[in-house]
Structure formats: C-alpha cells, structure tokens
TrEMBL record:
The protein's name: Putative Polysaccharide biosynthesis protein
Main location: membrane
Residue intervals passing through the bilayer: 27-49, 70-97, 103-120, 132-152, 158-181, 242-258, 278-299, 311-328, 340-362, 368-389
Organism: Capnocytophaga canimorsus
KW Ribonucleoprotein (keyword) present: no
Localization terms from the record: Cell membrane
Topology within the bilayer: Multi-pass membrane protein
GO cellular component: plasma membrane
PANTHER family: O-ANTIGEN TRANSPORTER-RELATED, PST FAMILY PREDICTED COLANIC ACID TRANSPORTER
InterPro entries membership: Poly_Biosynth_Transport (IPR050833), Polysacc_synth (IPR002797)
C-alpha cells in the first residue's frame, strides 16, 4: 500500500515540469481545477465503499456467496452513481454556459472517476493481495508518463492530458475486473433491491465523513481558481504536491504500526511515534525551507517562482501533521473513539469555512500565501482538538514529549 501511495504522488511530480513548460501555468491550472471538480463526483461515486468494502470482503473472504453479493452490489451502485454524476455534470456545464474546449476538459476529467467504478482496490485490500494494485498502478503510471511526453507537445494538446489519464484508468479497471472474475473466480449477480438499499444505508456515515474531510482538503483549489485565477491554481497545486510528498512518510509509518497498535493499544508507543515524528519533521522542514527555491525552480521553472513563499508556508503544516495524524490514526481510531473523530472533522471543517469567510469579508483572499496560511491554521486547529480529546480520554500519557 505504501508503494501505491508513493507512485500516486511521485508520478504527477515527474510529469509536472514538462506540462508546466509545454502548457503554461494557466492551462495547467485549468486542468487541475477540472480534475478537482471531478474528485467531488468521485467521493459520491465511492460512497465510502473503499473502506466498508475492504472490511466486508475481509470478513467474508471464505464465503463465496457473500463475496458475490458484496462485489456485485458495490459495482452496481457505483455504476449507477457514475451515470447519475455524469448527467449532473453535463447539466451543470450547460447551465453555466461552459462551451468548446472547456466543456470537453471537464467531461474528459470526469472520466477519471471511472477509477472509482472499475478499479476495486477495496477488494484486493480485503483479500490481502495488494500486489495486484501495486503492479497495475505502476504499469499504468509509467504508461501515462510515456504517453504524455509522446503526444502532448504543445498547448493545443491540453485536452489529451485528462483524456490519456482516463484511458489509463479505464485500462487498469478492465485488467482489475479480469483479475477479480477470472483469476479470483468471483461470480457476478444481480442482488435484490433490499440488499443494495442495506449497503447504501450502512455507508451513509462513511460518505458524510468523506464529504466533510473533502471540504477542508480540496475546497482551496476551487476558491483559488474562483478568486485568483487559473494561473494561481498551478502555483497552489505545486505547493500542495510538495507538502503531500513530505507528509507521506508519517502516513506510511502510522499505517504500518496500526495493526500492532490495534492489538496492543500501547499508549507509550503512541507517544514515541509523536515524539520522534515531531523531531524528524522539525529537521526535515528546516532543511527544506532553505531548498524550496531550488525545488520550485526545478519543477516549475521561472514561471512558478511565485510558489516559493506559499510552499514555505505549506511546509509548516507537515510539522503539525506529524502530531495530529498519529493522534487520529493510532489514537482515536485504535481506541474506538469514532464519534469524537467525526466531531473533530466537522469542527475542523467549520473552522476552515470560518477562515475563508473572514478572508472573503475583509478582502484578504488576494494571494496563494493566504490560502497556505489557512491550511496551516486548519491543521493546527485539528491537532489541538485531537490532543485535548485524547488527553481527556486518557489516550496520551502525561509526558508525551
């Protein structure tokens, strides 16, 4: 799973310098904006099944009939939601009078949502055969990487970026379904309406939590595009890509330790994770702060040197994240404090929207750095809430540091 995360973050960064130089920051910003719109449809199409599906498959992996029911139900629901989402997207584009290449940019970007329908990562997680995901993901990312360099040679080719991505997603999905139905011998059937309704009802809370999380994690790109323009989206996107790559080690570490923590519920281990993660990220962030100009120049060239200051601000989030993420993943989740975790997500989202409202009211949303500051404030608020709650619930020991 860690390899999948690395591939998903590294490949866009490898393609990034080429696309920025060939397409320019404005066109690239348009692509990022359209893909962000598509991710919201992905959340609806997924409907929390990436979590519940993996759990259900893991529980019933030896029950052929039950696996058939689970796989068939989830695929049918996702296909139906995909077509419904496509209808809503096209209707929205027509209502907002989006025409020409911009219309097709959003449509082609939407087809990336086929990944939620055809690529059942949840199934392979459930049967603990992640090698399929790793191999398929790696091959498709490399293929996309090569095709971009071959076919995208000028700004007139910008529609090929989401189109080639969608072709890769469709190909990977077809291969995945072949593995499920041919290699793993899973049967497909049409479950009753009551079974499908039960699956939907059981996933409402997961879906709501995904929506809440997506607001604070992804709305910034939409706001940057609306208030500042598509060229600023490219600057924001570069900063956030670097931040996500920097934060990846703490996610991998906590995911690796989760099974041990789930069994042992070792509070001292949680404290050690936080302590050493904090020290590590203080050192890494300090070094990176000096290297940001070189990193930005390498990835974006002269056109995106305005991303230096926002990126430096973004990196401060990694230090706070190194404390907040363990408290959630190996703290609240391990000790079954799901309700408190969800409350924290809601409060953090409300705090984020409050920051945006204040910024809009006082005309502060005038550059990407303001959005970077809001990001740091949101991560800080999230950490403070989690620490207070974990302290109250006696999840963290008195001397965490």
């Amino acid at each position: 799973m860690a390899l999948v995360q690395v591939f998903n973050l590294m490949m866009p960064l490898l393609v990034y310098p080429y696309l920025i130089r060939v397409l320019g920051d404005t066109l690239y910003g348009k692509i990022v904006f359209a893909q962000t719109v598509a991710t919201y449809f992905s959340i609806f199409i997924n409907f929390g099944f990436n979590v519940s599906g993996a759990k259900d498959v893991a529980i019933h992996r030896d029950n052929t009939y039950k696996i058939k029911e689970i796989v068939s139900s989830i695929l049918i629901i996702k296909i139906a939601f995909w077509f419904l989402s496509l209808f809503v997207l096209i209707l929205g584009l027509l209502l907002f009078n989006v025409k020409g290449n911009d219309f097709w940019l959003y449509v082609f970007s939407f087809f990336i949502c086929l990944n939620e329908v055809l690529f059942p990562q949840w199934f392979f997680q459930g049967i603990e055969k992640m090698k399929y995901i790793t191999i398929i993901n790696f091959c498709l990312k490399v293929l996309f990487f090569v095709l971009i360099f071959v076919f995208v040679t000028g700004n007139e080719d910008f529609l090929l970026v989401p189109l080639l991505n969608s072709v890769g997603v469709f190909t990977g999905g077809m291969i995945s379904l072949y593995v499920i139905f041919q290699k793993e011998k899973v049967m497909f059937g049409f479950p009753s309406f009551n079974i499908i309704r039960t699956h939907l009802k059981d996933n409402i809370n997961l879906f709501i939590s995904d929506v809440v999380i997506s607001v604070k994690d992804r709305f910034n790109i939409l706001f940057v595009g609306i208030f500042l323009g598509m060229d600023m989206v490219a600057i924001y996107d570069l900063g956030i890509k670097i931040l996500l790559l920097v934060m990846l080690p703490i996610s991998i570490l906590n995911n690796a330790l989760y099974p041990k923590m789930a069994i042992e519920k070792d509070k001292k281990l949680l404290s050690k994770i936080m302590k050493y993660s904090f020290i590590f990220y203080i050192l890494v962030t300090t070094v990176l702060e000096f290297l940001v100009p070189q990193i930005v120049y390498f990835l974006g060239g002269d056109n995106l040197m305005n991303a230096v200051t926002p990126t430096r601000i973004f990196l401060l989030s990694a230090v706070v994240y190194s404390l907040g993420f363990p408290l959630a993943h190996n703290g609240l989740l391990v000790f079954n404090k799901y309700k408190l975790l969800l409350i924290g997500m809601v409060l953090t989202t409300l705090f984020y929207l409050f920051c945006i409202l204040i910024g809009y009211t006082f005309s502060l949303l005038e550059n990407v750095s303001i959005f970077a500051i809001i990001t740091v404030l949101v991560y800080t608020f999230e950490f403070i809430y989690r620490y207070i709650v974990c302290k109250r619930e006696n999840i963290v020991v008195n001397r965490t540091f």
